[in-house]
Specification:
The complex is a heterodimer. By secondary structure, chain A is mostly helical. Chain A has helices at 3-25, 28-45, 52-74, 82-89, 94-105, 108-119, 124-131, 135-160. Chain B has one domain. Chain B is flat, with a radius of gyration of 20 Å. The chains are: A mainly alpha, B alpha+beta.
Chain lengths: 161, 206
């Protein structure tokens, strides 16, 4: 892979890598660090990789590992700056802001499964391979994640009433 | 659930961050050894020397024969003693406590089945299990290639208590993952190729 090909893939999948990390770390700055580390691994391993889908799956997997690595070093998620940052992105739509904050409040195994399925469009079996879980576990995480999200959002409605 | 898609589409990373990340990634081949890593290695080396001195001092004051204690690893639950055995495929195994068989099994598995990224040392005691990979400066560490997980007796996954990279003497990196397993825990090793699960091994710590 040439440098320009590396750069092209890096730009194409930066948002994906960042969102995967954000689901785990719930923090913008740490997720940017995970993006940085993932691209370094990608650059070093790029000669071994080929095929668009293979590269994307590899990047998602490495982004998860890098995010978990940062999580382990920090030993906790620092979500203090999330509200302020998200406020800027959703300044025109408070409902969507609430939905995103609810997603971020879920355990990473649920938010990651929901993201990969509903945003990236991956099937259960594909998510299972990327997250080292069985397909039935992924199905259960999707179902439980939807349920938790629904409960969180209905609680918000109740509180705002 | 279309709303989930819409919400995530608003979450993007700044172009300036991507530019910097790409630039830094390209510089990695040139500046492999950062000052931070060298300082980190020097500090770690000093800590190891001090710890070794302390252990030797304690053993001498207690008049304990280190050789006999190492040989009788089953009785040395409280102290992790590194065994200097004949290297097996370039690997060293150190173990103490009731988990020594498990540690050897893990070591053997990693040496034989994961030659591209063999662990060079596994230490297992009552309070922690440390797995260290040594990646020489000519290799690249691919975190997608192997993962280690520890599950408790109820099947719940335990997070590793620590993980760090330390620069080695030959310019490579020691990547250490430390867990706190107890008897009955299961250690699961998963080997990946390009992100796809190829092989899985499970060892019950006894």
């Amino acid at each position: 892979m040439t440098d320009s090909e590396f750069e092209s893939y890096a730009r194409r999948y930066s948002d994906t890598i960042f969102r995967v990390a954000l689901n785990i770390l719930k923090n913008k700055e740490d997720s940017e660090d995970a993006l940085q580390n993932t691209l370094i691994r990608f650059y070093k391993s790029s000669h071994k990789l080929s095929g668009e889908e293979h590269i994307k799956a590899w990047l998602i997997r490495v982004a998860q590992n890098e995010a978990k690595r940062i999580f382990r070093k920090n030993r906790r998620c620092d979500t203090s700056s999330l509200g302020e940052w998200v406020g800027e992105a959703f300044s025109d739509d408070l409902e969507k802001k609430e939905l995103f904050l609810s997603l971020m409040s879920l355990d990473e195994k649920y938010s990651t499964a929901l993201y990969l399925h509903y945003y990236e469009g991956y099937k259960t079996e594909e998510i299972a391979k990327m997250t080292s879980a069985s397909p039935s576990t992924v199905r259960s995480r999707l179902s439980r994640g939807r349920e938790l999200l629904k409960n969180l959002l209905s609680e918000d409605d109740y509180e705002s009433d | 659930m279309n709303q989930i898609k819409e919400v995530y589409s608003r979450i993007t990373v700044d172009d300036s961050v991507v530019d910097a990340a790409i630039k830094n990634a390209k510089q990695q081949k040139i500046t492999r050894f950062s000052a931070g890593r060298i300082i980190s290695f020097a500090a770690s080396f000093a800590v190891v020397i001090l710890a070794a001195g302390l252990v030797i001092f304690l053993l001498q004051t207690k008049n304990v024969d280190m050789t006999s204690r190492t040989a009788d690893a089953g009785a040395a639950d409280d102290i992790v003693v590194l065994e200097e055995e004949a290297p097996d495929d370039g690997a060293k195994t150190g173990s103490a406590g009731g988990s020594s068989k498990s540690a050897e099994a893990v070591m053997s598995y990693l040496s034989e089945e994961v030659p591209a990224l063999g662990a060079t040392e596994i230490r297992s005691g009552r309070t922690d299990l440390t797995v260290t990979y040594h990646v020489s400066k000519d290799e690249s560490y691919d975190p997608a290639e192997i993962t280690l997980s520890v599950f408790d007796a109820n099947g719940a996954e335990a997070r590793p208590v620590a993980g760090e990279d330390i620069l080695s003497e030959d310019g490579g990196v020691f990547i250490t993952e430390r867990f706190s397993p107890v008897d009955g825990d299961r250690l699961t090793l998963k080997y990946y190729d390009g992100g796809m699960l190829i092989k899985e091994e499970e060892i019950i710590l006894t």
